[in-house]
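About this split. The held-out portion is used to measure sequence recovery: a designer receives only the C-alpha cells and must propose an amino acid at every position. Recovery is the fraction of positions where the proposal matches the reference. Here is one held-out target exactly as it appears in the evaluation file.
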C-alpha cells in the first residue's frame, strides 16, 4: 500500500499570481516561502507555509499550460490536492495498474526540489491528486 505521509499542499489556480499573493501574504498574513517559475509545467507558483502543509498558488505562463486551460474552462479555484509520499517511484510502481496516472514516469520539478506525478481525476472521483516526494522541507 502507498504510504501517504500528509497533505503536502493545496494547489489553487489563479489568473494573476501577484494579486493573489497580496491576499494570502498581506491580508491573511501567511508566510510566503517562495515565488518561482516551473517551466516544466508552464506555471509560476507562490508557496505559502500553513502549519505542516502549504498552499500553492499557480498561474499559467502559457495558454497551453494545464493551469491556463483549467481557468479557461472552470475559472479560478482549487486545482489539486497534493499528498506527500516518502518514495514516489515505489508509489508509482504500486499504483500504475490500479489508477490512471498523468505521468507514468515521475517528473522532477522546481530545480530538483520535488518529484511528482498526478492521479487523473477520472480515477479519483473528480479530484486531481498530486503525489509529491520532496528533497528537503
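Reference sequence for scoring:
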Amino acid at each position: 500500500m502507498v504510504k501517504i505521509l500528509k497533505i503536502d499542499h493545496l494547489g489553487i489556480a489563479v489568473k494573476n499570481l501577484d494579486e493573489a499573493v497580496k491576499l494570502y501574504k498581506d491580508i491573511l498574513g501567511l508566510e510566503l516561502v517562495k515565488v518561482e517559475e516551473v517551466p516544466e509545467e508552464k506555471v509560476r507558483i507562490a508557496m505559502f507555509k500553513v502549519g505542516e502543509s502549504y498552499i500553492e498558488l499557480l498561474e499559467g505562463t502559457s495558454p497551453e499550460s494545464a493551469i491556463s486551460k483549467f481557468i479557461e474552462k472552470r475559472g479560478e479555484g482549487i486545482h489539486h490536492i497534493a499528498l506527500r509520499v516518502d518514495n514516489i517511484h515505489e508509489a508509482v510502481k504500486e499504483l500504475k495498474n490500479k489508477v490512471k496516472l498523468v505521468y507514468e514516469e515521475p517528473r522532477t520539478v522546481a530545480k530538483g526540489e520535488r518529484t511528482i506525478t498526478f492521479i487523473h481525476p477520472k480515477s479519483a472521483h473528480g479530484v486531481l491528486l498530486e503525489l509529491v516526494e520532496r528533497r528537503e522541507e
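Annotator remark: The mean pLDDT is 95.
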